[in-house]
Automatic annotation (TrEMBL), chains A, B:
It comes from Amaricoccus macauensis. This is Pyruvate, phosphate dikinase. Residues 506-855 form the PEP-utilising enzyme C-terminal domain. Belongs to the PEP-utilizing enzyme family. Its EC number is 2.7.9.1. InterPro entries: ATP_grasp_subdomain_1, PEP-util_enz_mobile_dom, PEP_util_AS, PEP_util_C, Phosphohistidine_dom_sf, Pyruvate_phosphate_dikinase, Pyrv/PenolPyrv_kinase-like_dom, Pyrv_kinase-like_dom_sf. The active site is at 440 (tele-phosphohistidine intermediate), 817 (proton donor). Substrate binds at residues 547, 603, 731, 752-755. PROSITE patterns: PEP_ENZYMES_PHOS_SITE. The keyword Membrane does not apply. Mg(2+) binds at residues 731, 755. Pfam families: PEP-utilizers, PEP-utilizers_C.
Length: 867, 867
């Protein structure tokens, strides 16, 4: 076999060292060297060369000086750094001549240490000697914590060489070229091992991913004086703000345990109890730190991202070993991208594309400090993000009392119902043992932005003992200090350190840029004036879903609602509805005032009526007493309303057609409110009325006729022109298939992807929690379809509906109003599918704004590349 | 205006009298006349002529003799008889000359009666005189029950003529031509009235449907002697068997109240208490009856269907007034069609096409005699067809005790559970107050062929008082005699007369013909050996759905099943499953033996586990005691398994993947049973294993891997080759959309259209009962989609799936196994969509066989007509 052409190229060759031939590390080092940074002299070996080595091919010839004049480092260089690879081998070339040379340069102790490390590492990596055997020899000759002397090191070296001879069957090869070849071949073979291939394929590497090598002069970081290894970066990985961060370990070769880390500057010092603080490196070697900071700045510009430098000092002289992007959390990522764009290093669009939209959540809610210890005693579904600390309370009343005294609480319930809403408002966090992502607790908590964990089925509540007990038997009494992590779905003991939310600065700057780019509308799901205000603060393009039922959970209204439900006749229902009318109208007036100039989609009543009645028979008794009705009548009505599968029952437009007086009341409230708000002629409101749970066109035709009649009546009574739009919520597969019909009556279709996903999969979100984790872990579902829109099933139905709808009605407005509205890949899908807007809970609006901007950029780029 | 060409044609003109120009009645009368039957002389007037009359056009000239020589009848003749039209007008042409003529022929009394009837009818029809005014005059001059004398009749005639003069403002027109023209114009205008048009359009008439007239010599059926009117047919309308049936009224002109009916033969005599029996007509006028019987036979051959003759006798001389198809019930229709085919009057294929498949249900179950009075005191859903009478029992135990004593019972429960199954077997009929068409009671009852009504929510059961109470307060104590009509969904007091089922004779002959024609397979849904035997009796092509869960409801197995569910660990579950294995295997051995040589699709466990546990806390306590487990453990497990929407929960393949040991046990039982049955090498069984509730292809891949492994293990253990097919039940919209993927792993797809309909509509069948009737009545849904396959939604998903599946796997077998398998229009859809088979409950197999034959004939005819 011959050495392939271009097998070896010097790192000084600059752009010739391409990542796709020599690997990313080789290419980056060549770029750093070209910047004039002190990169140790060396060469890159091509993928082809390494593959040939693995196949038994010859080692190419390296520059003679490189091999003869000192020790070497052999580093792997795959095409992408993330794909991993074998460990680097340092200290290659140990032989009598280099020992003498090194002794001259760094003294005999350091020289011996290089040699011993070189031989033992080689024995392990190339010949499979057990690390324990080497360690036993080290223990025999050296004492931990003391500086070794020459005699001990010479004895150790002799024993290590004997071990080598013994294990390998031949003496230590004195020829550096032979050592290098053997090491390179071993690493080349390791890259080909099946396990290694599987591992990197899991990280996205192709089956035939290549490996290159970098062979460099070794930095003599074990030398006396200010020698060692470290990292330096110019921004904080936690805030993204400017700060010299990193660390330095004296006389080391990279990361070594049991070595103390020197801070780089006085600001970076960390006190460790019981130990003298180490001086900062900029006191020991100020010029080196200055040079390295400049190097990090150069690398940042060169690589167009905040980069750190991995460096070595050789008696105070800095060398750049490598440079990689700074590790950062979500908040830091935003600050860094915005700062880079403002510094002109990257463009604003690139800044937008660099941020994972979901990471913006970290800005919106308090988070538990990632560095804080976590005493988790229970887990459930992460139903509403953010973290909160407070005293445990087991009833809504206690939560309200505590809130009145300014005491923060965590409300824990088996499950919540309408009667808990005020308690949920009063608490800092809500925990339920039952229920899924669309349970009452989850929906309400997300709506009001309270952290919430639901379905923590392993926990037990004992209302007699007033305790919350963990599966391992730890019992917390009411009043115990707990922390709820709604982002992760965990319940923690105590009060770990928190990081406050931060919505200004870089965060808001980035979103301004996003709004300038995006052309997909972002609306909010907001049910109450309070949520609408929150949505307006998040700068939405309107309300995409106002679920009117949540307006009825207020205690006073709930009472009237229950009177309506328990009424024996249409007249009785109408009487109760007449009392609800002014309340609903007042809600809408407030909502419309807040959302002036923006569209507001109001969904007519959707849930089955039994959701408004208590579940337990005691509560039904109490209700009967309060309403002055026979207990039998109340329980009979509750029983009659009970459903086997409430999700698939008498709700939505079915209720609207069977008891038309309900929708008529709601339509009247909407129209009267619109008339009232529009009187002053400032930015008029055009309400959008949405009919839920449609499965047949005739449902829309009949409901529309009644709503139009109410609109005509209000117009006549008020003597005004009333503009409104009527639309359909597409939640059933059948509505999607029949969208062509629906589009003839509807001005807009809004996809309720929560229910549409449930029905397309035949999977209740409330019940799926039991196995969803296992399903996703085992790859049955690639993703939880309630989090990420299922493009293959639900998505196809949406595409069918969009196409059929727009064919029949080209002006049809298309929106998405499920929780997927805040999921970036779903937002991208909506953009590609030609939708007009997405709507999501207020706290996910920033995610959707950024995702929409990214989608616009990506679609444009694809379009460009197609042309 | 001119008289249109061809306005008048004589009935003797035969084929010239086309129904599309002169109306059906005219055409039929011409055909009867051409047969040589004694049809009174007359002419037909064309649609065009009648339309012209309505528009004020001239009356065409009629044969002079016809108008001058006697009284006339003017009869409407629309294109289809079903479209209705104005009433006929008899006795036209009353004038001095005809009075004299008639007096000569039939005597003065009969002549006067013709005249009086003619004038008063004309006054009412043409001039709107109130019938009460005429009746007052009749009451003044005649005494009911006595024969009028000439003097009284003359006085009456004078008063009637005076009334006419008074009301119309001019004297009675003596000119018969003038009378005829006025009557014809009035009838032509009546046909154009908007109400009349709407009425006939509701019956399928086009907007411009034409009306023709027949003008005939009047049969003088009021004459002395054996004169009168009657009907005669040669087959029974109830059995379809040969029998001279009909009746005759003396001296009448068609149907006249308060006239006694003479039987046609001695066999047809009906005794009326307190009255002397009338002599049969074949004693009074034997030649006439013989002639008329021959006429009916001729008409039957001529019109290729069992026809009756409407006749008049003029002093013993028969005349044929009309001939129409014999009215018949479903059973008679089959017998008639088969007899006609056997007599060579029609072909077998035509016989097949003449029977509405659904009407075959009448053959399969006892029915309440349609003639019996019905004392209905409650209604619910018609969950399982047939009628049964028995003593009311309110518990399954009582039903079993009564059955042991040979006492038939009707079991009434609020709802049923697994513990009621033996009681349901023991009862003759089952009634539940709760539940829908897929409730436990409904499914089990249909399976075992027991009449059942569910969801009778207006009834109340009081277990203390042991009563069943109707909404109007009627209370029936346990032991009361009740009748359940599962075909109509009614509960009746007492024991009305029944008609027994009849499966032999014409019924089975017709189905043999159907089998010879059809090319769509018909399988049965059968869960137990008993049902499989029943299916085999109905001559199925295999079992399309064996729901294995029903095998676990037997008390002994239920106990082991519950142990499995309550086990805390996989080992505990396996131990219980090991005990279930031999029981399941034995079931399958029996099933396979019964179904030798035919395919058997076995669906792996589908329902959620909580369906196997009791609902009530008392029952859970008892269960804990019986199992020797802590009550808390049992109730906690039951609570943990409870689901918000069980239809969309942890069931089907989800359960199969999370607890794989269940499917593994079932697969082993299936394979071991197949091996055992196939040992003797007679007609080997190839089991078809079906995975339920799939929504993602990976579910199939994972379940298949485990099932294949079990098959391999059984093959190795038994040292045999084991053939089986694995398939997927398509019940979720997503499975339909992803059928292309599924077809790569599956040998067959079977559409579970019950669940597919539920999910496509987002509509729980159990909860839909509450509003389905209203929805269908108001036309929101054109049909109940659980009865008739929704072609626009569910059907489209099936077509998508069929196309995608067959594209990827051209050999893919496609079946339908929901209740729609027994619905004729759904069967037709499956044929057109290229399916291989439908599968339905055993009792619907005959319907499906006939519907499949019809579909083949219709598809072939369409194909012929396309070529």
């Amino acid at each position: 076999m011959l050495v392939p052409p271009g097998a070896v190229v010097g790192l000084e060759a600059g752009e010739t060292v391409r990542a796709e031939s020599y690997g990313r590390k080789a290419a980056d080092l060549a770029r750093l060297a070209a910047l004039g940074l002190p990169v140790p002299q060396g060469v890159a070996l091509s993928f082809e060369c390494v593959a040939s080595l693995a196949a038994g091919g010859p080692m190419p010839e390296l520059p003679a000086g490189l091999v003869r004049d000192g020790l070497l480092a052999l580093r792997p260089s795959p095409e992408e750094r993330a794909w991993g690879g074998p460990s680097a081998m340092l200290n290659l070339g140990a032989c009598a001549r280099t020992l003498a040379l090194l002794t001259e340069r760094v003294g005999v102790v350091a020289a011996l240490r290089f040699h011993i490390r070189g031989i033992s590492r080689f024995a392990q990596m190339v010949h499979g000697v057990e690390p324990e055997e080497v360690e036993a020899l080290i223990r025999k000759h050296l004492r931990a914590g003391t500086e070794p002397d020459e005699a001990a090191l010479r004895a150790l070296l002799a024993d290590v060489e004997a071990l080598y001879d013994d294990a390998v069957g031949e003496p230590w090869p004195e020829d550096p070229g032979e050592q290098l070849e053997a090491a390179a071949r071993a690493m080349a073979l390791a890259w080909r091992a099946p396990t290694a291939r599987i591992l990197r394929q899991a990280k996205g590497a192709p089956g035939n991913a290549g490996l290159g090598f970098v062979v460099q002069r070794l930095a003599l970081s074990l030398a006396p004086g200010v020698s060692g290894c470290g990292l330096l970066q110019l921004v904080s990985g936690r805030s993204g703000g400017p700060e010299i961060a990193g660390g330095f370990t004296l006389r080391s070769q990279g990361k070594e345990a049991s070595t103390r880390t020197y801070p780089l500057t006085g600001q970076g010092a960390v006190e460790t109890p019981g130990q003298m603080p180490l001086p900062p490196l900029d006191e020991l070697a100020p010029a080196a730190v200055e040079r390295l900071a400049a190097a990090a700045a150069q690398a940042t510009t060169e690589f167009r991202d905040a980069h750190l430098v991995e460096f070595a000092l050789e008696a105070g002289e800095p060398m750049v070993i490598d440079s990689v992007p700074v590790r950062r959390n979500g908040r830091a990522a935003v600050r860094i991208a915005v700062d880079l764009a403002n510094a002109g290093v990257i463009g604003r669009e690139e800044a937008l594309l660099r941020i994972e939209p979901r990471s913006l959540l970290e800005h919106l809610h308090p988070q538990i400090d990632p560095a804080a210890p976590r005493d988790v005693f229970g887990t459930g579904l992460a139903a509403s993000p953010g973290a909160a600390t407070g005293r445990l309370v087991l009833s809504s009343e206690t939560a309200m009392t505590a809130a009145a005294q300014g005491e923060p609480t965590i409300l824990a319930r088996v499950e919540t119902g309408p009667e808990d809403i005020r308690g949920m408002h009063a608490a800092m966090g809500v925990l339920t043992l039952r229920g899924g992502m669309t349970s009452h607790a989850a929906v309400i908590a997300r709506g009001i932005g309270v952290p919430c964990v639901v379905g923590a089925g392993d926990l037990r509540i004992d209302l007699r003992a007033r305790t919350l007990t963990s599966p391992d038997g730890r019992a917390y009494h009411e009043g115990a200090l707990l922390t709820l992590d709604g982002t992760r779905g965990e319940i923690l003991a105590g009060a770990p350190a928190m990081i406050a939310p931060e919505l200004g600065g870089a965060f808001s700057e980035l979103l301004d840029w996003a709004d300038a780019v995006r052309d997909l509308g972002v609306r909010a799901n907001a049910d109450t004036p309070a949520e609408a205000r929150m949505a307006r603060d998040f700068r939405v393009d309107g309300i995409g879903l106002c679920r009117t039922e949540h307006m009825f959970f207020d205690p006073e209204r709930l009472t009237v609602m229950r009177e309506m439900i328990l009424a024996e006749s249409e007249e009785g229902r109408k009487a109760a509805l007449d009392r609800l009318l002014p309340m609903q109208r007042a809600d809408f007036v407030e909502l419309f005032e807040i959302m002036r100039g923006l569209p507001v989609v109001i969904r007519l009543l959707d849930p089955p009526l039994h959701e408004f009645l208590p579940q337990e028979s005691e509560d039904l008794h109490a209700l009967a007493l309060a309403m002055d009705l026979p207990v039998e009548q109340v329980t009979a009505r509750a029983r009659a309303l009970r459903e086997v599968n409430p999700m698939l029952g008498m709700r939505g437009v079915r209720l609207g057609l069977v008891m038309p007086e309900i929708y008529e009341m709601q339509a009247r409230a909407i129209f009267e409110a619109a008339v009232a708000v529009n009187r002053d002629a400032r930015e008029p409101v055009v309400p959008e009325v949405m009919i839920p749970l449609v499965s047949a066109n005739q449902e829309v035709v009949l409901a529309k006729a009644r709503i139009d009649a109410v609109a005509a009546a209000v117009q006549a009574e008020e003597d005004v022109d009333l503009a409104f739009r009527l639309g359909v919520m597409v939640e059933t597969p059948r509505a999607a298939l029949r969208a062509g019909d629906l589009a003839l009556s509807a001005a807009f279709l809004s996809f309720g992807t929560n229910d549409l996903t449930q029905m397309t999969y035949g999977l209740s979100r409330d019940d799926a929690g039991r196995f969803m984790r296992e399903y996703v872990n085992r790859g049955v579902f690639t993703e939880d379809p309630f989090h990420t829109l299922d493009l293959e099933g639900v998505g196809e139905l949406m595409l069918i509906a969009a196409k059929r709808g727009r064919t029949k009605n080209p002006g049809l407005v298309l929106g998405l109003c499920g929780e997927h509205g805040g999921d970036p890949s779903s937002v991208r899908f909506c953009k590609v599918a030609g939708f007009d807007y997405v709507s999501c809970s207020p706290f996910r609006v920033p995610i959707a704004r950024l995702a929409a901007a990214q989608a616009s950029l990506l679609v444009r780029d694809t379009a460009d590349s197609v042309q």
